Amino acid sequence: MHSSSKQPGATFKNRGKALNHDESDKDEDFYSEIAPRITCMPIQKRQPYKRCEEYCGDEYGQWRMEQMKGAERLEKELKGRWSMEDLIDEQVKRFQAQYSSIPTKLIKDVAEVLMPKWAPPRELAALSWLGDWRPSAIPRLLHSLIHAGTLPESRAVKTVLPLLMEELRAEEAVIEEEMAEIQANCIFHLPLGMMRKKKGGVAALACVHTEFKKVHQVLIKAQNLRVKAMHVSVKKVVSPPTDAAQFLVAFARLQDLIHQHAMRHHLIHGPVSVLTA
């Protein structure tokens, strides 16, 4: 009886062990099936960042991308504007250096300013005023570009430009009166008056130098007036940098066009001649 009663318990224990063994085999088979699907990633290795859309959603990711593109365009425009302003300042400084460069007070240097050798006679006849462009012609060119629709008309164009042109014409008239007085003095008084009163070549030459010093002062005023006309036209009349750049380009091209046309005519027809009866 005792032996028969122990057998069922032993059988139960053995069956339990067999059951546990079978379950472990099944677990091992299950894990063995999915094991190849699992890969281990070392901690030291970094995976590339995923796109923002995968974390934040497509709509936010697209908005973020458009925002960054817009910021890049704005940054490029800002850099372009800064570089354009630098180029405008550099071009204006070139004109200022050209108009401010007055040679020494020697007679031959003053004559060189009035009649520059690099300018053909027809170029001087077309636009020369005391050796270079008339100051009021600079804002007049700006007015022509605005009237033609090349440049927009702004509030400064309506207010500052007319005042500038009127002021330049008034100062030009004063300079012309001073120059006319010097010319009249040279024509009427030097050969007939001063040279009669003062005997000797040294005294007569001193009188000539005195008049040329006056001409030199007039030329300085004319050059300063050109500097003023260019500076005010670019800095105070034309406000956007793009419009100022267009005006400077048009001014330089017009200067070159007139010069090339006069040079071509000079090479074909020779120097200017006057027919006499």
TrEMBL record:
GO molecular function term, any single one: sequence-specific DNA binding
Residues of the DOG1 domain: 53-268
Pfam families in UniProt: DOG1
Matches recorded under InterPro entries: OCM_Kinase (IPR053293), TGA_domain (IPR025422)
Stretches for region Disordered: 1-27
An annotated GO BP: DNA-templated transcription
Top-level taxonomic group: Eukaryota
Name under which the protein is recorded: DOG1 domain-containing protein
Organism: Cuscuta europaea
Species classification: Eukaryota, Viridiplantae, Streptophyta, Embryophyta, Tracheophyta
